[in-house]
Structure prediction request, 206 residues.
Amino acid sequence: MAGSSGPIEHTAPIVGVLALQGDFREHIAVLQSLGAEVRPVRRPEELAQVAGLVIPGGESSVMDKLSRMFGLAEPLKGAIRSGLPVYGTCAGLIMLADRVLDAIAGQQSLGGLDISVRRNAFGSQRDSFETDLQIPALGQHPMHAVFIRAPVVEHLGEGVTSLATLDDGRVVAVKQGNLLGTSFHPEMTGDTRFHEHFLNMVRSRC
Ligand code: GLN
Prediction:
């Protein structure tokens, strides 16, 4: 075919969504709408085939248990260390944090982001809310953000960039090298800028 220069250049990178628990279907739909080839990831063999991974929202303590039970926790840690682009939302952000505050007994994270994250930081009175955030790294328009029993980032190590804060200054989106994390759920609002940013991170590494 005219203009075709072989299958390799035309193959879109395959991105995975950790599909043990939580709202992985919503992430798959957003990534597909952006033209990505997407696979659910539940097993180490599936992880080995993806060039980037989204860890969805859900319940981090359950995701932690399932990832260890399915033999996925160690391969995930290895992939993170070796530079796989990973985007975590809400429970996914907790999974990526080096330190988890208000974890349940025995709860572990995968780590990678040099942050302390506090689970359920808004308490039961305000456990879910929506607000508009300024995210300069993603353009001028504010982003409508949905928080559901959300964590906040309480301490950022030197290599970590804050991408968004609430009006009171609390950090709710971060980036460090190959890792991106948000306390909120862009997969629910139709604003695809975080997913596009993640796909750019994947493409620039391929
Ligand atoms: N509170 C949940 C947890 O600790 C996160 C909630 C979410 O992902 N929407 O994992």
In short: The longest helix spans residues 193-205.
